Fold:
Amino acid sequence: MKRESKVRDMKLAGEGHRRIEWVKEHMPVLNEVRSIFEKEQPFKGLTVAICLHLEAKTAYLAKVMQAGGADVVITGSNPLSTQDPVAAALVDDGITVYDWHGCTAEEYHQQLQWVLDCQPDLLIDDGGDMVHMLHTERQELLEKIRGGAEETTTGIHRLVAMDKSGELRFPMVAVNDAYCKYLFDNRYGTGQSTWDGIMRTTNLVVAGTSVVVVGYGWCGKGIAMRAKGLGANVIVTEIDPIKANEAIMDGFRVMPMIEAAKIGDYFVTVTGNISVIRKEHFAVMKDKAIMCNAGHFDVEIDKNDLGEMADSVKEVRHNIDEYLLPDGRKLYLLAGGRLVNLASGDGHPAEIMDMTFALQAMAIKNVNENYANLQAKVYPVPAEIDQKVANLRLKSLAVNIDHLTPEQEKYLNSWKV
Ligand code: ADE
Structure:
């Protein structure tokens, strides 16, 4: 459907097309999905609303949904991750876009409203803001929603809370919890893109420094693993005793934040929780310590505390704010505490998002085929879809694997030796 999009500047579209073409060449699994969608047209006549970090890989997902017959409406899931050239290219391709880089909180809210004004049937959300708005401010649209898929851990936490309290009004698939998502995207994707973001922003060395990774979930594991590979001494902080034990066995030092705060040169938060680095930690940090966040929201490093403690704040390099404390120490915050890999980088590598977005596309197709029999609950990605993505990825790498012999299959399925 032809609507008037709202983006920064349509003259940027050429560069946006180049970025999308580049990632397309490195997303073979999604290309397979595209071929299926082109033939089957599973979304013909339906409006799909997308709220995801609007960069090239996401744009290609939007185009794949469009190739499947969908009328696609898209906005970004974070004010700093949107790439204006990519947004313009999508408009050029007939997709409705309401998004521009650096939008204010009010504009971000307005963009989501505009997306919902298009009355979607299906949703792809990242972080849960779109689903939240539907259940609070736009309840009149709930009836039409067939279901959706959620990208990230933070969004799933919110959905599970809604599900538990009986307030979720349509089925949502927890894409993050599929094997082909968290084992690769959260671990290798966040691991690589976070360090890419930090290094391109600071242009400083990592080898020989002390890196504090705050949170040892799948993302934290990836960030710690890559920091070790870069030659850093890695410290992990955790609140979960099991994850703390994992970190120890992976070869990292584990200690409370109040001790790690005195040692770290770099701090990377990836907990999904608020104020994991706060006043008492800033008070003991070393001069020139660098802090950044790779979790979904910019709440993990307490910017209010930091602002209150500082005599002055200035941007000393693009995306680096220097907080000057009264005792002369300088503390640096990257990308305003927003996810450094997207706000100060291009997000995860294309090959990683290939699997994630193939899962998203197939999960949404599955919801659309089965919504009449689904309840308003959080569902896992069906195991067949996870397996299919894994197999397609292997095929794209020309890697073959073994298969069970009938005898082995029988052995595994029996309890008598
Ligand atoms: N690109 C698009 N969405 C992304 C995400 N959730 N994480 C990293 N890179 C992305």
